[in-house]
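Researcher: I'd like a candidate sequence for this fold, 333 residues long. If you have to choose between options at a position, lean toward the conservative one.
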């Protein structure tokens, strides 16, 4: 493929994404950044963790995305008594003709293209971890047999804040499998007014399909062909390594406040997501502004504050912002 053909395909995909965003906006009002981050995760072929209080439209967003992106959707409502087999499926012993007996695998709700893991932090860590293999390797192993997930496969998990009762913190290994964390905040007054008018009438707005599953996979492949400048690659590495307390490049604030920092998956996520953000904004090449905008969503769930930093009232969001600002100042100099 020539450069001209690549540019043409990227521009065509950008126009199609604009139609997808317009279709989503009919049902999701006033959450443009949340929508863009979720679309970025799907374009990058990854999973997203949406965190926010109940009633902010997280479930509605996932349902709308399944329609717009043309994906077969599934849903699991996580509860404290949920077991791994309730998600993955199980083998049952069946008796066939002639009395022959054999095990048959009954697929669980995870076998879909877009899984809504609703209130994932209400289930026990054992049940949460049942998603690990599927999220990373796109297969599920039951009784020694591997069962491949449909393609594409995305998990969009919703989570209530950890300070609420009846929740379990997600294991660090599973948090790292989410490409990014998306904080869903309260809408503005104007947006909330539009929500009232749009959702309390006799008809609810409908989303229209814009993509198919095959077209989404083609978009994911095309995204990986978008060029990333050497300066941006180095900036990604500098940022990720600066957030590790044992790295020589880490600032003093990180060494004093952070228990553990992001691994290589964080850099991989940033390499993909900066392309997706540029594409959604109609640009052919990502820049440092994309990295700065995505630093907090990609890094915040891959780091942990020390006990002393928590006691001092420090926050990961503020720490990441300060590292980004310091790196931006050095780049400008």
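Model: Candidate sequence:
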């Amino acid at each position: 493929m020539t450069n001209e053909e690549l540019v043409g395909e990227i521009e065509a995909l950008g126009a199609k994404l604009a139609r997808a965003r317009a279709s989503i906006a009919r049902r999701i009002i006033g959450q443009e950044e949340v929508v863009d981050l979720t679309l970025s995760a799907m374009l990058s072929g990854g999973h997203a963790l949406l965190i926010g209080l109940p009633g902010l439209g997280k479930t509605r967003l996932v349902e709308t995305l399944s329609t717009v992106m043309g994906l077969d959707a599934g849903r699991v409502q996580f509860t404290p008594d949920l077991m791994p087999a309730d998600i993955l499926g199980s083998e049952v012993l069946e008796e066939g003709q002639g009395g022959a007996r054999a095990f048959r695998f009954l697929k669980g709700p995870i076998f879909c293209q877009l899984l809504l893991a609703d209130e994932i932090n209400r289930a026990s860590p054992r049940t949460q971890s049942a998603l690990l293999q599927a999220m990373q390797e796109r297969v599920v192993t039951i009784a020694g047999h591997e069962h491949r997930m449909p393609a594409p496969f995305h998990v969009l998990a919703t989570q209530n804040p950890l300070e609420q009762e009846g929740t379990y913190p997600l294991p660090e290994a599973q948090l790292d499998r989410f490409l990014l964390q998306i904080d869903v905040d309260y809408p503005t007054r104007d947006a909330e007014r539009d929500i009232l008018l749009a959702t309390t009438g006799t008809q609810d707005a409908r989303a229209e399909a814009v993509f198919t599953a095959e077209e989404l996979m083609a978009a994911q492949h095309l995204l990986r062909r978008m060029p990333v400048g050497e300066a941006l690659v180095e900036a990604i590495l500098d940022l990720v390594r600066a957030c590790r307390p044992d790295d020589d490049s880490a600032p003093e604030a990180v060494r004093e406040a952070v228990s553990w920092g992001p691994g290589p998956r964080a850099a991989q996520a940033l390499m993909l997501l900066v392309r997706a953000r540029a594409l959604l904004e109609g640009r052919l090449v990502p820049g440092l502004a994309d990295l700065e905008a995505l630093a907090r969503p990609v890094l915040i769930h891959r780091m942990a504050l020390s006990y002393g930093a928590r006691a001092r009232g420090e926050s990961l969001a503020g720490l990441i912002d300060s590292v980004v600002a310091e790196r931006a100042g050095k780049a400008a100099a």
